[in-house]
Task: structure prediction
Amino acid sequence: MRNHTRAAVMWESGKPWEIVDLVLDDPKDFEVLVRIEAAGMCHSDDHIRTGDSTVRLPIVGGHEGAGVVEKVGSKVTRTRVGDRVVVAYIPVCGTCRYCSTGRQYLCDKGLHAGTGMMLDETYRFHSGDQDLGGFCATGTFSERLVISENSCVPLPDDISFELGAILGCGVPTGWGSAVNVAGVRSGDVVVVYGCGGIGVNAVQGAAMSGASRVVVVDPVEMKRERAMEFGATHTFATHDEAFDFVRQVTWGRLADHSIITVGVNTEEATSQAISIVGKGGVITVTAVGAMKDDQVKTSGNILLGYGKQIRGSMFGACNYLSDLPRLMDLYREGQLKLDELITNRYSLDDVNVGYDDLLAGRNLRGVITRF
Result:
């Protein structure tokens, strides 16, 4: 049986999202059809529009989402009709080398993220004779989607769909960048470059880990002001201002950590992050840069001589099945801010307005709630 759904599609780079009617196949054996109730608007989806990320086009946008299971394939065992779920943009197979060694964020079953194909190498979205994938094999900018059962994470009744959506990427990616990848410890000095939907959660993670100073660098005044609400101790509009401050308060030792969560990473941003940490410092790269450019260019002697480390952060090295319940508990106990992250809500028809707001610095996180 075939279903119909409205979705935001990127037909070619450089063009706006277009809302179209698509045909959606029923789920196959190990797949699930989900009705989306909320979808987060992450900067990663805008990288498709700009061409910074190279994916197969056309593609249905969105990779943060939460909703209700409406149909299941004949061999599905991990969820059932009626369940509330968070859509995991990195599946959790539990059996590959990476899942079995505690690195679920590198699961082998995520191999089709850039094409949107399912594991059988076919597609579920269609427009006439044309097959469309969903970004990260999801496509949450759609009324409904079909995903692998490995991409379904239970969403408790006391957590709203809106919060479930942003827990699908933005919150754990930022929080985990500080807690898991950087490994911030009590008393550390941390500098976060960029305080949007990812960076603000890196701030929360660093503060929660006991950092003595959490310094934010962002040119947007609203984001600097909001950063203070989430645990930042100091904010600056420029790297130079932050560098002078960090050098002064540490007596020249410099920071223990820098975390790059800018909208688009560049060689300049990475070089600044490298320069602001001292001996033994850790630079965590979470931001996406243009595929055609190199973002890391430094002397190996600097890394060797001063013991600095550059670490890549995929999903904040989080595990959907263990870290999302952990984050939900922190929220319930009032230790993690989630409601405050959502600055604006949109209809699917206004997806381009939402991204205009993101690029203009008016959002921490926008969420699509009306389909």
The two ends are 22 Å apart (CA to CA).
